[in-house]
Amino acid sequence: MKKKLVKSNKDRVVSGVLAGIGEYLNIDPTIIRVLFALTIFFSFWATIIIYILLAIVIPTESGQSRQSASFEGEFSEFEKTTKQGKRPRKEAEKVEDEWSDF
């Protein structure tokens, strides 16, 4: 199967371009990020323009996005319990001390 250059959903920091390039070249994305940071200083910020263009042109990896995958378990469980009414309401504990008047 032919490899495609896509933005990564698993190891993204800003848009996933550098991690996608690292996965495509079978190189650690950290090395790509360090090289990117170094080229910013030597190319008089032209690298940032290239990065923005790549973020627009390179397609996103198919599948779930990082945000939806990370929140899916939390919210789906919460929605299930609140819709069914099985989740008990938590009661606050009353604290008796001398400083509660302030």
TrEMBL record:
GO cellular component term, pick one: plasma membrane
Annotated segments matching region Disordered: 69-102
Transmembrane regions listed in the UniProt entry: 34-58
Pfam family of the protein (one): PspC
Protein name as catalogued: PspC domain-containing protein
Keywords assigned: Cell membrane, Membrane, Transmembrane, Transmembrane helix
Main localization, broad class: membrane
Domain Phage shock protein PspC N-terminal: 3-61
Topology in the lipid bilayer: Single-pass membrane protein
Cell compartment(s), UniProt: Cell membrane
Lineage, broadest ranks: Bacteria, Bacillati, Bacillota, Bacilli, Lactobacillales
